[in-house]
């Protein structure tokens, strides 16, 4: 080595050592949610899904007002016409504007799904929290109930309930919420059990944190991830079910529109006017696609095993 | 293991009883009489009919009778199809539905396992991305949309395959395909996740350190470990298939149970609705139970620890 | 009598690509393993000892990892140049490996017997029955009672110690020339640790296998190794025989390691002295000696240049990379407690 030749004695004087300097963490530390966001962003699919969702949500809001027609106004002079003029999606068998109806219907479908998700949250999360946090006999009984209910296929319950209730926005959401919360409760309980055995929770408890503080400060933030993921997957399921119910004749009543109702109406015209099925079906598929992409992205981003 | 099975069976019975009771009371609390759609039936005749079906008795009595009949395998008689028993109708619709279900599970699982494994092995490449898009599409696009598209293009426009009716294998192709999409999507995604998990396990390193080739270590070590937990998705899949069959059978005019169920919902044929509901529930509960048992049998870890319990 | 080198690692560099940049896990590592010898690689976690050992078997995942430069000569053959196919013939047959955690290193859904037989069938062209016979023999050799019953059992039916014995049986089944044991006892109970070490020592003598033992436990080193390689921040900073490293260590880091280990031969009042600070981040390794920041004796030169590896005159086997060995450096005596044992 050349450099070794020009060594001077002063280089061999003691150097200041600063241990603190060494303790400094050279790497930029990412917070948990910061890391989640970073990984979510780097997931192209999730990003596309998110943007799609945003566009659809905005369209559900402003779409129906973009042309002069309302979702229920019939015009017998323009029956079953493919896209023309400002009827961008054409008209249906009663001369109603399909563009307006599609976006209006998308809004209703989303509303039903959000309502159903809200049911999941308000029943499922507390149920799971209580069951998982208290454990013991409380948990035992609550689990027995869940075990029985979980075995009931929700398809059957939803259909029966809707035969009984008059299918409206609220009734459909209720029927789905009544069955949907069970999954949520199971997810939350599982997380709670996992968390309870973790050391930091034990540490907080040894330091005298109260039960409510424990639940709100320590457990809930950690349960958030799985809860959000569950919601992200239960919303498309609800949207699917709404459409499915409409298809078998248990949807909301015309002239109200939802994507399911529109698809059902479009299906009747399929042989002659396939476009009437195409638009609502495409929007429905896009919504579900977007939710699933975002849900997948979130799940990957929140999975500690996939952290790098 | 034996204790576990008994306990599970007890739960199955309770669940089934809850469903039956729930169904029964819901159906009998429906507003209006089952005869409301039938026009101009003389009063006496209506009463006679109600009596014949046992609908004039108090509800609790009817309930006990219903349970008694059920225990003997009788689900009552259809309101709509005069004189046909519900069991009869079920047996008539079951074979077609079962054939569709089994075909789509077999086809869908094969494609799904293939797609999922390839995606995991080629993680991050275009192959993986394509497989992912296919699987997300597979359960984003509802079966009735897929079914209508298939029926419109393959059936009507191109005229390659029959779009309706029942009889030969060709009639089953389109409905089977429509139902398989969900199976493919679910299995592919599950296998991919499991496979990635397994590939990162230490024992895969051990296999490599033994000098096994990549093919051998995947075939002998990874696949088996990834397939075992995939059995558990079969439960939700059966549910998904039943749901799908309701509309797919409608679209392709398959004379199966799903078709019959939708028909009975539309004409409010309560006894048939009740019968099919109970049948579906029993089918699901039993298949989930069987899947759990199967899982225990093929996973050596559960097989043994279950025995100790 | 000088024994022949079985393995020569020459200036090995291994890096990993991460989201934050290139992590230089191994930065110019060289050492030899002679036939029949046990070499221990010691160092803190993250010093690159596991990466080095996995690179020898070419087990590091590529990507994100890659061998930047260097040679791994095994029996005169450069392993870094072999194709994946050629490497398969080396793994398990010539070089075998035991991993840290016997709980996760065995396939849970395959019987232990089959897992032992796999390598035999692949490398020794044995039939199923012969392989089974040999597997039984191996189980007996590693001290597993009633092997006829055990051979058909699954890993979860084995205790931790038993599983590690099974791992050893898998590794030694094809009588490899070199065994790499990566922290083979870390995950085990203390009582079991001793049994496993005894077994390894035993088998090493019986089968004349060379061994590379990766560990951070100096007690294990003293008990099993012939020579020691001390690694720090991806570099070898000192090598020597066990006696040289334990009784005449020359690098301040080695002094620190010794000082942080409880010893029976020193006075009881003596407290353990931890090494203050943390190793440098290998995303941006320092240009000078990586230990300079934590070193009590650090000089200006230490932070500017990496010292060359010096062979000590007293013995050709003892090498150290430290500026204190330079003639211009002030004479520094190791802390008193280090020389407590005196020269043996």
Automatic annotation (TrEMBL), chain A:
Subcellular location per the Swiss-Prot or TrEMBL entry: Cell membrane
Pfam family membership, one: OppC_N
Superkingdom field: Bacteria
Gene3D superfamilies linked: MetI-like
Alphabetical list of PROSITE patterns matching this protein: ABC_TM1 (PS50928)
Membrane-spanning ranges: 45-63, 103-125, 145-163, 169-188, 223-252, 277-298
Keyword Transcription: no
Membrane topology of the entry: Multi-pass membrane protein
InterPro entries, sorted: BP-dependent_transpt_permease (IPR050366), MetI-like (IPR000515), MetI-like_sf (IPR035906), OppC_N (IPR025966)
Record-annotated ABC transmembrane type-1 domain positions: 106-295
Primary location recorded for the protein, binned into one broad class: membrane
tRNA processing found in the keyword field: no
Matching CDD domains: TM_PBP2 (cd06261)
Keyword line: Cell membrane, Membrane, Peptide transport, Protein transport, Transmembrane, Transmembrane helix, Transport
Family, per entry: Belongs to the binding-protein-dependent transport system permease family. OppBC subfamily.
Protein name per the record: Oligopeptide transport system permease protein OppC
Highest classification ranks of the organism: Bacteria, Bacillati, Bacillota, Bacilli, Bacillales
UniProtKB/TrEMBL annotation, chain B:
Family the UniProt entry places it in: Belongs to the binding-protein-dependent transport system permease family.
InterPro entries from the UniProt entry: BPD_transp_1_N (IPR045621), MetI-like (IPR000515), MetI-like_sf (IPR035906)
Domain of life: Bacteria
Protein name, per record: Peptide ABC transporter permease
Gene: oppB
Subcellular location: Cell membrane
Database matches in PANTHER family: DIPEPTIDE TRANSPORT SYSTEM PERMEASE PROTEIN DPPB-RELATED
Membrane topology (UniProt): Multi-pass membrane protein
Alphabetized UniProt keyword annotations: Cell membrane, Membrane, Transmembrane, Transmembrane helix, Transport
Segments crossing the lipid bilayer: 9-30, 100-121, 133-153, 173-191, 227-252, 272-298
ABC transmembrane type-1 domain residues: 94-295
UniProtKB/TrEMBL annotation, chain C:
UniProt signal peptide: none
Pfam families: ABC_tran, oligo_HPY
PROSITE patterns: ABC_TRANSPORTER_1, ABC_TRANSPORTER_2
Localization: Cell membrane
Keyword Lipoprotein: no
Record key words, sorted: ATP-binding, Cell membrane, Membrane, Nucleotide-binding, Transport
Molecular function GO terms recorded: ATP binding
Domain of life: Bacteria
Domain ABC transporter span(s) in chain numbering: 7-258
Keyword 4Fe-4S: no
Matches recorded under Gene3D superfamilies: P-loop containing nucleotide triphosphate hydrolases
Membrane topology: Peripheral membrane protein
PANTHER family: DIPEPTIDE TRANSPORT ATP-BINDING PROTEIN DPPD, OLIGOPEPTIDE TRANSPORT ATP-BINDING PROTEIN APPD
Recorded family membership: Belongs to the ABC transporter superfamily.
Name of the protein: Oligopeptide transport ATP-binding protein OppD
Organism, scientific name: Kroppenstedtia guangzhouensis
Gene from which this protein is expressed: oppD
